[in-house]
Amino acid sequence: MRFSRKIAPEIKPRQNFITKKRLREDEIDFDKLRSYRLDRVRKELVKNNLEACILFDPVNVRYALDTVNMSVYNMHNLTRYCFVPVNGPTILYEYFNCEILSKHLNLIDEIRPAITWDYFSNGDQANLQLSKWINEVKDLSKNYFKTKKIAIDVLNGPAVTALNKEGIEVVDAKLILEQARVIKSPDELTCMKAAIEVAEKGVSKMRSDLKPGMTEDELWSILHKTNIENGGEWIECRILSSGERTNPWMQESSNKVMQQGEIVAFDTDMVGPYGYCADISRAFVVGHKFNDEQKKLYSMARNQIDHNFRLIKPGMSFKEFIKKSWVLPDEYYGNRYSCMVHGIGLCDEWPQIRYPTDGGEEGGTFEKNMTITLESYIGKVGGKEGVKLEQQYLVCLLYTSPSPRDVEESRMPSSA
Predict the structure, then answer these.
(1) Which pTM value belongs to this model?
(2) Rounded to an integer, what distance in angstroms lies between the CA atom of residue 339 and that of residue 353?
(3) What pLDDT score does 7 carry?
């Protein structure tokens, strides 16, 4: 079914300026990339007996329609969203006066001004605006989801209550989008390679520039700069620590001055070119000379990742993986990381596979062309320091990221 596009016409002549090619840009078929992702969303809707979804999360909006605008801002403001039906027009509800930003995207059939109803945007007019948004959704339901059941990923309480009063049932779109994003297309994998190459470039510069007297923040800034200047977008977290701040893990980068002989560990969490995430963790030593205890910690982390990645193959259940996974010694278990494996794509994705005592997902299986990361944090409870390593993989084959470097500079095996 085809629809007439209702996108604002160009209001001024095409500008002439010079641009620089992005990393691997010529290797990516963007039309195929976008069509594949939108098709995955629609197939998941059908699988779950749903006719449509409304997406607010900027990562989900990007996956479905490849449109971006102030992504971080829109993570905490309901000011931009899209409507994706199984049968019907895709509609982008765009932030004020920004319709021109997505006029080149042919999978968007219509662009409308976003109706916002949050207090920040509307103050004492919030309830009036909410009524307008409810009427908009009711109009969509008449034509595109007559079951009056709609999947929505992010929504505030007043909006859910108001929709329910109109007889419209809201279900969580998180499951729909997480399952859609699991299996990567060849073009997605190329995007991910580009992101990892940028991350590795930043990590290499961090290692070469590391010296006593630098603050953690000064070292961390190198990755941000490298990401932005190579077409990347943002970094999800700021987890970099040194010396005694590496144990326990998860302490954020600070103004601590790093000293000779201290471990420095970090997790990139880097949303790079094309919006894809490079999520790798590395550990260095200031001065690049590990002592015996640091070598032990690093070797244990390396062994955990090596053991676990050798287990994984298409068709293996998560339950079987958990049972066979590397056993973390008791004196380190209290400081364990939150998971052993998680999916990766535009950001951290399903599944998240936890340690045996921590519950979490057990019912799924690893599938061909899933992209995952394997995690390890080794730090004795009450110990002085710890080591964090993390590596990205494509199920079936080793993914493209070079391995965490150990103290002898050797690499992980080249295939899985």
Answers:
(1) 0.92
(2) 6
(3) 61
